[in-house]
């Protein structure tokens, strides 16, 4: 007989004990801050394509640099946090985040694509510190029985930051840069092309400088606040022993793999929603600039659905096993991608929005399952899960290449494959008799 997927309600244990409330709020605000960075950046793939008159493949290197910073810095961040503390990790992350945002000032002055990629990379080295610190820190702020629910609650504020990022991208950047597409810009005299480029880059620069100043304020608040030192008592670096324990934990290894495919799917869907919508609206006769602005509304709809669904899923986790809900939503995402690939038009665009509802649960739930009961090994274990964000740097350029050489609609076969992997992980972890993590020695 199949095992039930319904879990025992967790009402007996507090999700966030009162003694952790202020620290929880400050740390949770960091989730919103990196959500802002992620989703103000996604539409810039299309914007930089216009500004510099370059291909989807080249423009997608925005995502390669952005998510590459996560992968590059995750392990150094984990070792740093293991040696020092979660609070120190948050502070270093905020400092690098602010530095990357302020680096848009010289990047816009130079007027080349590469300095922006460097600024994105520095920024996400900071985000890597933040995520490597904040996720396991939140897991430690209360009973182990409510850890995954607590992380989902904190992660529920991530899409709020994302919504602000999308609105900023739409109204502060996309609506203000010149609507001429790349090929038409290329027909302009070089002086006129450069003048338009520098004007547009100044518009792109503004929000990143503003968020850099916000981050400086957040840095000061966390610096002066006394934060709990959960699992910070042991600063020894038993790297070999920790890696051995984690690699022997099939839930952890599977979680790293699933997380890489999830982040790849998420970034592909959100990055190319703008491209997909632009194609739909241009087919209806809109100009390239107007179509891009109209399509950005659907990116916003995706994020609103993502935010609402995450709160709903956090509630459902009181009654349904995380792995089972993960599997069901992954299958739902695959089903929604079918009309995206084979129907197209406004139906395909709305189906692509619907995928975000299915994705809402995935990142924190995979994270929570993978780090279940690993104890202080979570500090290095978090590095593997943050390095898995590299999926977001590798897969968008692959989809960009498919768009350039094959078909925009059919390129969504890549996120569909990613969701198959996630569904398999959900199935594996939905069973109560599945292997559990070994506690740290």
Describe the overall structure:
This protein has helices spanning 21-41, 44-52, 56-59, 61-83, 86-102, 104-110, 113-139, 147-155, 158-174, 182-186, 190-224, 239-247, 250-283, 288-316, 322-342, 345-359, 362-370, 378-387, 391-405, 413-429. The protein folds into two domains: 17-228, Up-down Bundle (Growth Hormone, Chain: A); 236-433, MFS general substrate transporter like domains (Growth Hormone, Chain: A), CATH 1.20.1250. The relative contact order is 0.16. It starts with 20 loop residues before the first helix and ends in a 12-residue tail after the last helix. It is an all-alpha fold and 441 residues long. The model is unreliable at 1-11 and 433-441 (pLDDT under 50).
Number of helices: 20
User: Would you tell me the overall average pLDDT?
Assistant: 83
- CATH third-tier fold name of the largest domain: Growth Hormone, Chain: A
CATH class of the largest domain: Mainly Alpha
What CATH architecture label of the largest domain applies? Up-down Bundle
Q: Please tell me how large the radius of gyration is.
A: 21 Å
Oligomeric organization of the protein chains: single chain
Q: Can you tell me the CATH superfamily of the largest domain?
A: MFS general substrate transporter like domains
GO molecular function: fucose:proton symporter activity
Transmembrane segments: 20-37, 57-81, 88-107, 113-130, 151-173, 206-224, 252-273, 293-317, 324-343, 349-370, 382-402, 408-428
GO cellular component, one term: plasma membrane
Keywords: Cell membrane, Membrane, Transmembrane, Transmembrane helix
């Amino acid at each position: 007989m199949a095992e039930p997927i319904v879990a025992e309600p967790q009402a007996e244990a507090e999700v966030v004990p009162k003694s952790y409330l202020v620290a929880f709020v400050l740390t949770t605000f960091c989730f919103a801050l990196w959500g802002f960075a992620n989703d103000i950046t996604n539409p810039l793939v299309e914007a930089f394509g216009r500004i510099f008159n370059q291909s989807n493949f080249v423009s997608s290197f925005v995502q390669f640099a952005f998510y590459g910073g996560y992968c590059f810095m995750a392990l150094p961040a984990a070792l740093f946090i293991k040696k020092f503390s979660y609070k120190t990790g948050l502070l270093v992350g905020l400092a690098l985040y602010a530095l990357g945002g302020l680096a848009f000032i010289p990047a816009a002055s130079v007027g080349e694509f590469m300095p922006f990629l460097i600024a994105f990379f520095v920024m996400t080295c900071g985000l890597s510190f933040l995520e490597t610190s904040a996720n396991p820190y939140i897991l430690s702020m209360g009973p182990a029985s409510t850890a995954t629910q607590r992380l989902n609650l904190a992660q529920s504020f991530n899409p709020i930051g994302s919504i602000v990022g999308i609105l900023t991208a739409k109204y502060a950047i996309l609506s203000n840069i010149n609507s001429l597409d790349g090929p038409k810009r290329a027909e302009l005299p070089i002086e006129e092309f450069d003048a338009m480029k520098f004007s547009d880059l100044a518009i792109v620069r503004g929000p990143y400088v503003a968020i850099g100043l916000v981050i400086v304020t957040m840095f000061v608040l966390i610096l002066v606040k006394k934060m709990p030192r959960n699992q910070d008592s042991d600063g020894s670096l038993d790297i070999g022993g920790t890696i051995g324990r984690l690699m022997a934990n099939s839930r952890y290894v599977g979680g790293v793999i699933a997380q890489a495919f999830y982040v790849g799917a998420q970034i592909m869907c959100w990055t190319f929603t703008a491209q997909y919508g632009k194609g739909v609206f241009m087919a209806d006769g809109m100009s390239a600039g107007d179509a891009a602005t109209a399509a950005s509304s659907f990116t916003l709809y995706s994020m609103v659905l993502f935010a609402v669904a995450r709160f709903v899923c956090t509630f459902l986790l009181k009654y349904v096993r995380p792995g089972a809900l993960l599997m069901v939503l992954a299958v739902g995402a695959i089903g929604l991608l079918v009309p995206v690939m084979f129907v197209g038009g406004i139906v395909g665009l709305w189906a692509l929005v619907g995928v975000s509802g299915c994705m809402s649960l995935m990142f924190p739930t995979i994270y929570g399952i993978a780090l279940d009961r690993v104890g202080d090994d979570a500090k290095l274990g978090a590095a593997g899960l943050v390095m898995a964000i590299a999926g977001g740097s590798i897969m968008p350029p692959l989809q960009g290449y498919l768009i350039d050489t094959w078909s925009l609609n059919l390129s969504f076969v890549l996120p569909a494959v990613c969701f198959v992997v996630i569904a398999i992980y959900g199935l594996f972890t939905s069973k109560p008799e599945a292997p559990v993590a070994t506690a740290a020695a």
